[in-house]
């Protein structure tokens, strides 16, 4: 891993792994929005960083110049590893995504709500009497890992293994390609075994569904199925874990919002949208495959673009008073799940999980706050959310 | 004054906000993409929901059309 010097110029030499950015990126982004709305860095082999909603939207919509074949900004990028449909471009993208969409509609997701509710209740039961917990470790991270395992037909106890792979692919792998490649190989072998099992004995789960699926009458190549499964694992867990964690980070520090949601649970879905706006966890990336200009700024071929939906969501031109969390914000076209054809396929699942996580917790633990001297830590890289969040109840 | 809602199917990416906020006016297909129910006419009392759906569509795919008519 190469040492990267501290940043002195965010406009021309930014670094999204700089500790100041990881800790609190929002003031940095606002400064850039005011003076250099598309920042650039030579680090990571060259990356652009649009900070305004309109520019993020323009890049997301422009699949001719901006490809999804690389979606994470890395040092020394390894060979491209397809994870359809997130890494697919048109015209291939539509078929790859349509295959998975029916399993993720609101109605399809509703079937999993009872399991989500049971998972949350079970977790709360473990710490409710203890007077406190780490809301990120003991609650937020456990919900999606178990529910995704449930949907894939995998044992819910495999959580530690899944989280290790996700960390190696999304975090350690940014600077250490060998770690990432090892995780890719391990996940490939793991899923190949599972696919073979489901071919022999199909179940009512997504692995069985993909093992039997066809595009244009042809079964999917094993690498396609494995790529899609790895995507569901990687994209379905620490994203939602981060989103849930950020909700609790906010509520632990804002008693007025916490009490209002406990008293008016019907407001929770609206509040969830506002939490998603203000604390959007996911930043994607694109590769410039054809030089172009957006908002007067030249994008050169072969460079990457950090596609920051979190930055778009804090643009005052789009959201009045963007740094204030308004839990009943009525107009909210936030981009937490992306914009354009790559809209997060799990958005309905994530919304359900976050909503259920808040409902179940607030029913049992309406009063809580950050533990005295709590040291809250944040993840870095593609997904932003609290990784340590000690709270006390009452 | 008659209000009608309309979903631009080319723009819709299946965020499903309209259906969540105004299920009386918007339905989803098997892929989760939205369309207006029937001819999109907004029954009396649901006007606010129509505008709420429009105000929360990230793809600007929901239109609310105001027109004369019975």
Concise description?
The complex is a heterodimer of chains A (394) and B (70). With 394 residues, chain A is α+β, with helices and mostly antiparallel strands. Chain A has 16 helices and 14 strands.
Average residue-wise pLDDT of chain B: 95
State the major sheet of chain B: 2 strands, antiparallel
Strand content of chain B: 25-35%
Stretches of chain A where pLDDT is under 50 for at least 5 consecutive residues are none
Number of strands of chain B: 4
User: Could you say what the CATH architecture of chain B is?
Assistant: 2-Layer Sandwich
Instruction: Work out the oligomeric state of the chains in this entry.
Output: heterodimer
Number of strands of chain A: 14
Shape of chain B: globular
Radius of gyration of chain B: 11 Å
- Overall helicity of chain B: 10-25%
N→C terminal distance of chain B: 8 Å
In CATH, the homologous superfamily of chain A goes by the name Cytochrome P450
Order of helices and strands of chain B: EHEEHE
- Which architecture name of chain A does CATH use? Orthogonal Bundle
Would you kindly provide a written description of the structure presented here, covering whatever features stand out?
The complex is a heterodimer of chains A (394) and B (70). By secondary structure, chain A is α+β, with helices and mostly antiparallel strands. Helices cover 49% and strands 12% of the residues of chain A. Chain A has helices spanning 19-23, 26-35, 53-61, 92-100, 106-110, 113-127, 135-140, 142-152, 159-175, 177-200, 206-212, 222-253, 255-263, 268-278, 309-312, 347-364; strands at 38-41, 47-50, 66-67, 132-134, 214-215, 218-219, 283-288, 292-294, 297-299, 304-308, 368-370, 377-378, 386-388, 390-393. Chain A has a five-stranded mixed sheet with strand order 1-2-10-7-3. Chain A has a three-stranded antiparallel sheet with strand order 4-14-11. Chain A has a two-stranded antiparallel sheet with strand order 5-6. In chain A, a hairpin with a 5-residue loop joins strand 1 and strand 2. The mean pLDDT of chain A is 96. Chain B is an alpha+beta fold. Chain B has helices at 17-21, 47-55, and strands spanning 2-7, 26-28, 34-36, 62-67. In chain B, the strands form two sheets. Chain B has a two-stranded antiparallel ribbon with strand order 1-4. The model of chain B has no long low-confidence stretch (mean pLDDT 95). The A-B interface holds A 98, 101-102, 104-107, 269, 273, 330-335, 337, 339-341, 343, 347-348 and B 13-16, 19-20, 28, 30-32, 52, 55-60.
């Amino acid at each position: 891993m190469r040492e990267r010097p501290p940043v002195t110029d965010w406009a021309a030499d930014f670094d999204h792994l700089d500790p100041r950015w990881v800790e609190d990126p929002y003031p940095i982004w606002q400064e850039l929005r005011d003076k250099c709305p598309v920042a650039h860095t030579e680090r990571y082999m060259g990356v652009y960083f649009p900070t305004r909603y309109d520019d993020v939207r323009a890049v997301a919509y422009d699949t001719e110049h901006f490809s999804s074949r690389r979606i994470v900004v890395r040092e020394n990028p390894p060979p491209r590893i397809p994870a359809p449909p997130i890494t697919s471009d048109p015209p291939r993208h539509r078929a790859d995504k349509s295959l998975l969409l029916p399993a993720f509609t609101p109605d399809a997701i509703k079937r999993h709500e009872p399991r989500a509710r049971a998972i949350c209740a079970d977790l709360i039961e473990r710490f409710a009497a203890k007077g406190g917990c780490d809301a990120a470790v003991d609650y937020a991270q456990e919900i999606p890992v178990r529910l995704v395992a449930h949907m894939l037909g995998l044992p819910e106890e495999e959580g530690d293994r899944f989280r290790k792979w996700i960390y190696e692919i999304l975090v350690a792998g940014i600077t250490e390609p060998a770690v990432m490649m090892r995780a890719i190989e391990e996940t490939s072998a793991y899923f190949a075994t599972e696919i073979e099992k489901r071919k022999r004995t199909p179940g009512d789960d997504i692995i069985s569904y993909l093992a039997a699926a066809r595009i244009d009458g042809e079964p999917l190549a094993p690498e396609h199925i494995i790529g899609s499964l790895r995507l569901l694992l990687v994209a379905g867990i620490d994203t939602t874990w981060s989103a849930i964690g950020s909700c609790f980070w906010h509520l632990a520090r804002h008693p007025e919002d916490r009490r209002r949601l406990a008293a008016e649970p019907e407001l929770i879905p609206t509040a969830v949208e506002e939490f998603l706006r203000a604390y959007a966890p996911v930043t994607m990336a694109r590769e410039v495959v054809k030089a172009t200009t957006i908002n007067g700024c030249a994008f050169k071929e072969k460079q990457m673009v950090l596609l920051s939906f979190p930055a778009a969501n804090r643009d005052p031109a789009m959201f009045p008073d963007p740094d204030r969390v308004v839990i009943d914000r009525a107009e909210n076209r936030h981009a937490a799940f992306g914009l354009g054809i790559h809209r997060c396929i799990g958005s309905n699942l994530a919304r359900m999980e976050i909503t259920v996580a808040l409902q179940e917790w607030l029913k049992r633990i309406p009063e809580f706050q950050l533990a005295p001297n709590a040291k809250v830590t944040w993840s870095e890289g593609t997904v932003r959310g609290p990784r340590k969040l000690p709270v006390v109840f009452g | 004054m008659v209000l009608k809602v309309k979903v631009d199917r080319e723009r819709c990416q299946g965020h499903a906000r309209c259906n969540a906020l105004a299920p009386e006016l918007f339905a989803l297909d098997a892929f989760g993409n939205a369309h207006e129910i029937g001819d999109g006419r907004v029954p009396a009392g649901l006007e606010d929901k129509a505008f709420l759906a429009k105000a929360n569509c990230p793809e600007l795919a929901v239109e609310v059309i105001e027109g004369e008519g019975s």
